[in-house]
Amino acid sequence: MRRLLFALLPFTVPALAQDSVKLSGNIANRLSDSVIVSYNDNRIAYYPNEYLARTDAKGNFSMTFPVPRGVYTQATIVNGSRRTEMILHTGDSLTLTADARHFDSTIRFNGRGSAIQNFIVKHTMAMGRINQYTTKVKTDINKEPADFLKAIENEKNVETDFLNKNKAGLPSSFISFWQQLFVYYNYFFIEQYPQTHAMIKARRYTDTIPDANFSVVPQLPDAFSDSLLQVPSYLLYLTGVFEIRLRASGYYYHSGDTASYRRFQDSVVRLVYKLMPPGSAEFYLAQNLYGRARNQPMEKTEYLYTTFKERWPKSEYLPMLDRQVALARRLAPGQPAPDFDITTPDGRHTKLSELKGKVVYIDFWASWCKQCVGEIMKGGKMKELLKNKPLEFVYVSIDNDTTADNTLIAKYKMDGLFTHAEGGWNASEVQLYGVTSLPAYFLIDEDGNFAQQNPPTFLQSTELILAIEKLFR
To answer: Which of 92, 179, 219, 334 is exposed most, by the fewest CB atoms within 10 A?
Structure first.
């Protein structure tokens, strides 16, 4: 799948109402002179906040930073290459001690909120970090339906047993948060099971799902509560529960049939309004609009945007939606593509605007993105078919390591205009084109305007050739 790698963009993200947390302590044998705490408090996109404190020569540090008010917030604390998880809450005042040489096994917390942090430390040592639960459940998707359901129930029961053995001193609100975290992770992976299991069996992407795969869906309840909006896995559950219910009931659409897909999405929205409580519905519709604003006709985006603002005029999500819709307008077909400099590894200089008169296919990539490199390699045969056309391929790397880029270009004899975006995710080109994940593609017509939303990738060579050939005069 595309669009998997998310970046931190330099703009202010609206947060929930905030209070502060105090964190101080000592890290023996420190690996760097700083301690960094990071967390994401934005529900519809990943834009983490980072707070840094310097350590003195003995490893002592102290910091105060904001956290969302009245909810549990998953956070990470980092010193050099060492990191561990925390779950913070309003008013925590924590003192940490650790030895960086044996980080996980030596971390101890004292102070207000320390019972939760020490529980997390025990969990890391015995069970692994929280994301390792999702790794286990992903592996269970290999199993046939009945065995899959048994396996994920067992995974949840193991977590419940650990909690019951180690819950002394934990606040009841945290115990509930922790339990719901794994309950809703299981619900989310039940939603993912039908198609993902089909893809595993086929060993390729497919939207043809055997009926047997949907046999897990009746295990998926309507379990909605706005009190759970602080639980990350509940948010994941919300994003897919009605989609998979409709598909299990026989509502089929083909991925290439945009009309049937829009009717399907309209059916989902009607269910959201009817069955979800207000806060959950607001979240669902905000994240749905944010994710689709640039991938659907602008008239549909404008309609959903206007409807959302009328229903929730003071929504905490509106600043993000305002920005995303403005970006969709600027990148819509017919709008001029922002100009930028192109400097190739051999020192040639040009600008995108100087390529007018040619169709231009722009690919944002990086050497560390294996999917990016693989797709570039797949483009060779397609380019050969179009070699006598007024066509240019421009590759914009956001990699900080230009040597790695140039090594790949030389090794695989990649052809096209390769250039480097100075500043990585914060580069002006990245910002102008709204790139938040890799690979990212843009198709520009001979007049220098955006030609198509979501142009085909190199892996969709037939579709891409047809899309490009339509643009030649």
So the answer is: 334
**CB contact at 8 A, 341 and 349:** yes
pLDDT digits (tens, 9 = 90+) for 306-338: 999 999 999 999 999 999 999 999 999 999 999
Choose the most confident range, by mean pLDDT, from 244-258, 274-288, 387-401.
Answer: 274-288
Q: Could you tell me how far CA 22 lies from the centroid of its own chain?
A: 29
Four-point Cα dihedral 277, 283, 285, 288, nearest 10: -140
> Tokens 């969990």 appear where?
123
Which residue reads 């669902």 in tokens? 284
The residue to which tokens 């102290």 are assigned: 62
- Hey, how many other C-beta atoms are within 10 angstroms of the C-beta on 394? 21
Q: What is the DSSP string of 55-92?
A: --TTSEEEEEEEEETTS-EEEEEEETTEEEEEEE-TT-
Q: Whole-angstrom Cα distance, residue 229 to residue 283?
A: 9
CA distance 307 to 39: 31
> Can you give the pTM of this predicted structure?
0.83
